Amino acid sequence: MLTDVPAEVPGTLASLGLVRFDERPATPWRNGQGSTREIARRLLGVVGPDFVWRLSVAEIGHDADFSAFPGVERSATLIKGDGVTLTVDGAANVLRPYEPFVFAGGAETHVILTHGPIRLLNVMTRVSRMSTRVRVVDLGDGPAIAVAGATVLVQLTGSSTAYAADGASADLVPFDALTPRPRVRLAAGTGLVAIARMQNFRATRAFA
């Protein structure tokens, strides 16, 4: 059962699992060198700070060190800005827009900006419990996208409309998201969207 996923929308719109980016508060990183807006998470237990997976948008205005998360796999996707190098345990990696980059959360990681502030879509998954795949697709290239289960869809460019089985619908603008719900939602429109699919680790191993 999925819990602890914010959906701050009234009435039947809750069935969409819609999260408005502008309504999510910016909170400082653990090391104070940046800020993040959490979109969704699933907790490791009923209460407490630990998570099985967590999806957020980091806002970075200057070179910074990433906080360490041992035992966690991270996926970082540049969704706003340009000119970003991520050094992971001393190895330099150039991040290109809309191309997910996966690395160990416990590694010593430093971000270097060369063209001003950026935003990163950040997905963290506890490797002993879950695996995650993040992909970026163009809504205009095919039919409506179905979103269900442990999946998050984040609008990156353009706009779309999401539809739920109960008749609820809502428009998404950049950085709005559809968070996990047991029933299928459909998203149709234009522009790029990021789709993060979380999968139980044991299930992944069983069918690999």
Which labels suit this protein?
single chain, 208 residues, mainly beta, six-stranded antiparallel sheet, five-stranded antiparallel sheet, 1 helix, globular, disordered C terminus
Task: Kindly describe this structure.
This protein has one helix spanning 201-206, and strands at 18-19, 27-28, 35-43, 51-60, 64-65, 72-80, 84-88, 91-95, 101-104, 109-113, 118-126, 130-138, 145-149, 151-155, 160-164, 169-172, 177-178, 181-189, 192-200. It has 208 residues and is mostly beta strands. Strands 2-3-4-11-6-9 form a 6-stranded antiparallel β-sheet, with no helix packed on it. Strands 1-17-14-19-12 form a 5-stranded antiparallel β-sheet. Strands 5-10-7-8 form a 4-stranded antiparallel β-sheet, with no helix packed on it. Mean pLDDT is 86; it is low at 1-11 and 202-208. Strand 15 and strand 16 form a beta hairpin.
